[in-house]
Write a structure and sequence with these properties.
By secondary structure, the protein is α/β, with parallel strands linked by helices. The chain is about 35% helix and about 15% strand. It starts with 5 loop residues before the first strand and ends in a 17-residue tail after the last helix.
């Protein structure tokens, strides 16, 4: 029989209260030797357990796991991050030591994908614009052919930029609908794209054909401002740009200029900076639907993160394969 791994919660206490239900704690108690239900804010608070600790369950409020910190825990075998990306959170030395890292990116991707699907469907239906017209003028001009030409979802072309966790989920959610789906991702082959019910194309080709483009690429040096003035100009009149990824993927000044002409529409859940100044011109654009970075896990959805990580701890304790390992070789192109 496998020995229960000595495990500690390292996160802000408020985060623990939001993420972990009583049944989660019961499952952890059964799967491992949990060092208390109250988390510590730093691994250094576990000095008296340095020689025994095998698993850290981390989340928001935990400091970066540096080489110096990892040296204090010679038996550490797994960091299970009950949050999203570990990029910038785990030092290179952690990987060199052979410590496994798992996270809840896949769980957080689900609500983002659901939000994106809703945005695609509602954007093609011109819901925001027609709602504003109806509430302002209080006249039903159905079928709204003049105000919303080419409205509807049937046979529309949807472009997905980035087959990330979220991008792949969006592609899957789009399958039941009567859309033609284009995919731009340099790491995906045409055959892989076809398996996802999409057609692989270049970025310029995608932008020139779509009715809606949705961004799901990580923010890297070569993806910053990937939609600038030239790229936005390729979009046809009436197209919609959706961004639930990183605000800096779009040259925001260029987008403001395009939106100010009334030629395009946009749904932005992320911006650059993430918290906009109160005088940002984005607040005043009638063809923009703006939300305050809410596509990711909120409310009850954040407990899906705990469901995933507790499941990983149970698999680790049983000696079975982890499902959500972060691979060091993929870090350079992850969010």
């Amino acid at each position: 029989m496998l020995k229960s791994p000595v495990t500690a919660l390292v996160m802000h206490p408020v985060v623990r209260d939001e993420l972990l239900r009583p049944d989660h704690m019961d499952r952890l108690d059964n799967a491992c030797n949990l060092l208390g239900h109250n988390p510590v804010r730093s691994p250094l608070d576990l000095r008296d357990q340095c020689s025994h600790l095998e698993v850290m369950i981390t989340s928001w409020g935990c400091p970066r796991i540096t080489a110096e910190l990892a040296e204090q825990f010679p038996r550490l075998k797994l960091i299970a991050h009950m949050a999203g990306s570990v990029k910038g959170f785990v030092d290179e030395d952690v990987w060199r030591r052979g410590i496994k890292v798992t996270n809840a990116v896949a769980a957080n991707a689900q609500p983002v994908a659901e939000f994106t699907l809703a945005a695609i469907l509602l954007a093609n239906k011109r819901v925001v614009q027609l709602s504003r017209l109806y509430m302002t003028e209080r006249v039903n001009r159905a079928p709204w052919a003049k105000e919303a030409p080419n409205v509807g979802n049937y046979k529309k072309v949807v472009g997905i930029v980035g087959a990330s966790h979220v991008g792949r989920l969006v592609l899957d959610l789009l399958k039941p609908f009567d859309h033609r789906v284009l995919l731009y991702d340099p790491y995906v082959s045409p055959l892989q794209a076809r398996d996802m019910k999409a057609t692989k194309v270049g970025l310029s080709e995608l932008l020139s054909q779509v009715d809606v483009v949705s961004l799901h690429a990580p923010l890297l040096e070569d993806t910053r401002d990937m939609l600038g003035s030239r790229e936005l100009a390729l979009l046809k009149d009436g197209a919609t740009v959706i961004n639930t990824s990183r605000g800096a993927l779009i040259d925001q000044d260029a987008l403001v200029r395009e939106l100010s002409t009334g030629r395009l529409y946009a749904w932005l859940d992320t911006t650059e900076p993430d918290v906009l100044p109160v005088d940002s011109p984005l607040f005043d654009l009638p063809n923009l639907f703006l939300t305050p970075h809410i596509a990711g896990s909120l409310g009850s959805e954040i407990q899906r993160l705990a469901d995933q990580i507790v499941g990983e701890i149970e698999r680790y304790a049983r000696g079975t394969t982890l499902r959500h390992l972060v691979r060091r070789e993929e870090l350079s192109r992850l969010a």
